[in-house]
Amino acid sequence: MNLLKIKKIVENIFKNFKLKNTDAKISAEYLIKAELLGAPSHGLARLKMYCDRLSRKIINPNPKIKIKKISQSISHIDANNSIGFVAADIGIKVAIKNAKKTGIGLVAIKNSGHYGLSCFYAEQAVKKNLIVLCFTNAPPAIAPYGAKKSLFGTNPICFGAPTGNKIPFIFDTSVSMINRGKIRVAAKLGHKIPLGVALDKFGKPTSNAKKALKGVQLPIAGFKGSGLAWMVDIMSGVLTGANHAGKVKDPFDDFTGSQNVGHLFLVLKPNLFVGKNYIKRIKENIRTIKKLPKIKGVNEILYPGQGMKSRYKKNLKKGIVISKNILEEIKKLNVIK
Amino acid sequence: MNLLKIKKIVENIFKNFKLKNTDAKISAEYLIKAELLGAPSHGLARLKMYCDRLSRKIINPNPKIKIKKISQSISHIDANNSIGFVAADIGIKVAIKNAKKTGIGLVAIKNSGHYGLSCFYAEQAVKKNLIVLCFTNAPPAIAPYGAKKSLFGTNPICFGAPTGNKIPFIFDTSVSMINRGKIRVAAKLGHKIPLGVALDKFGKPTSNAKKALKGVQLPIAGFKGSGLAWMVDIMSGVLTGANHAGKVKDPFDDFTGSQNVGHLFLVLKPNLFVGKNYIKRIKENIRTIKKLPKIKGVNEILYPGQGMKSRYKKNLKKGIVISKNILEEIKKLNVIK
Hints:
CATH class of chain A: Alpha Beta
Strand content of chain A: 5-15%
Distance between the termini of chain A: 24 Å
Strand order of the largest sheet of chain A: 1-2-3-9-4-5-6
Oligomer: homodimer
Shape of chain A: globular
Helix content of chain A: 40-55%
Number of helices of chain A: 11
Order of helices and strands of chain A: HHHEEHEHEEEHEHEHEHHH
Largest interface: A-B, 73 and 73 residues
Largest sheet of chain A: 7 strands, mixed
Structural class of chain A: alpha+beta
């Protein structure tokens, strides 16, 4: 489908659900960007959910977002239950500004919502020639090590660094074996998921996506993944003033109130310690790694962000494929209100 | 063996190898602490290696460690090839001071060496009621995703947070399936390692520790672990001015020069955004997670740091067991020079 056309439709839907023009535009752009990046789980499959929450006012369509300056480097944002995209977009811009001024910028955000992909925000910092770490928590999806009930979200860790060429280094990973959004899309489309990435509600391995959604996702590497998820929950939840310890609401299933997701952005100047040599150093780093002997079937060792970028370019050319289910949803949303 | 006695012997050995009194004391303390924490791979098994490097002056016994203040929050340390313990110990203290003053402290260290366990330094920050992240790189041990040659170190990620009780939250994990030191100890003692954690030099799975040391360790979770290792190499190597991209020398095998390991410490006040509520929030976080239903065979869900602390207490009571090989090494070192 024509990209500009679909983006315009999504933007209009958001406006009809009372988002301000600029907020509707940002939100539509990020949903389409997720599709282009090959992450449909964070794309149009979420549009109806956002609209449902907007119409019930548990996403605040007209938030008063407060930015509190704690120091030249540190800011705290109360997003007043805005749609996550808007709060995070403001947050990363403040973190970038703080880092440009003092070398280091730290921004914590509370009362926000699901913000799409961390790489949206990391990319902004890297494009301004900065190093970035993004943390966000999410509704319960994976069980802490030793527990048989899910509590941690898939709690992504995202790291970005300028590379001196057009494609930034952006590593954006959940700490679960599989992205929850992927299971959700599989459930919607009736597809199977691989065995070993999730358990059903009785604690048994399952390849049924619907059963997995009611069960528990598995963290990467047992206690290591569980520890990383816990770290992200402390950084983005406990520290920021947002919900934590499993209290972030599932945006698809729980309409009893706002999510109160937390985000934490840390931004650094890459030249703090090595000056102008940074670009030479990172280029040498990547070049050295790319030159390593490869395993069978691998033509090139890609750095994180390269695969994403090539998927983006390819999809930009050929357009995005929207499943029938989701197209139906969009059509319905476009006539409502 | 009596702890005080062995610590004194190790301290004297370090002094005989020309370390200053205070540096010998710190280094001996950290080696014994690793033993007490149940990480013998980072303990006395390394003493001979440190002495060998000291006697060849590729660890500088009398370094001029330079601390450059970049801002109230940020400092850069050139460790002048000191023994890693000493540089890192100074580094964390500077990071703590910076954070106490401005809310956030960032310290980068170059020209350092292997510093033992990250938790040594994280613990110091947490004891001062601060949040901490520690990164360090290490000699080649694991292969980047797609490569069949090792390049990244086991590159640990360490995160610490005050809990409001005596046992701090300290999550200290390598991004490899198994700690390289554990393989080294297994090789020394002739033990096997589990299958699936390492490949031999021909790229085949092996349970032979000696073959694994010549081969490649596997990262956790494929490209996810590989990406985390790459992130740590950029943060602690590329940014700091230390070696990176596989150039950190193996302290056991490569005596052609100093290691030039890099470390990066980030320290934050936990009350920046939630004030005095932090302790209430973290306690609630831990309490909620501990209350989850447990899988069969688990009596209590432990937070990272609890297991370590109980091993420490147990070992402190019963003393540490030193293998015959290592005892021989210590005896020899104690009469040399």
